[in-house]
Amino acid sequence: MSLETLKKAKKVIGAKQTTRAIEKGMALRVYLATDADHRIVQPIRTLCAQKGLPVEEGLTMDELGRACGIEVGAAAVAIVS
User: Strands 76-80 and 27-33, how do they pair?
Assistant: First the structure.
């Protein structure tokens, strides 16, 4: 999924909101920043594995934040239904 798709998609931003969306079954795909704190993203990665959700990695927090139209970095973003 491209950054352009991420910009246009309905999403939640941040580790807490992403975790909530996964637990509620609303998340379709999760993006995790490569430079985010391991303690923040590892529980999300594990939860995605348990739920069978695709995880995209390879973007930095700044790149994820910009793709979401925010001025700060984002450790995690979920595309939601």
Answer: antiparallel
pTM of the entire predicted model: 0.93
Output the domain CATH number for residue 44. 3.30.1330.30
Instruction: For residue 11, give its domain range.
Output: 3-80
Residue 40, classified by CB atoms within 10 Å of its CB into exposed (0-12), middle (13-18) or buried (19+), is middle
Q: What is the pLDDT of residue 4?
A: 80
Q: Per-residue pLDDT tens for 19-70?
A: 999 999 999 999 999 999 999 999 999 999 999 999 999 999 999 999 999 9
In the chain, the number of structural domains is: 1
Torsion of CA 2, 26, 23, 63, to 10 degrees: 20
State the DSSP H helix or E strand holding residue 21, giving kind and residue range, or none if neither: helix 15-23
Paired tokens of 52: 């069978």
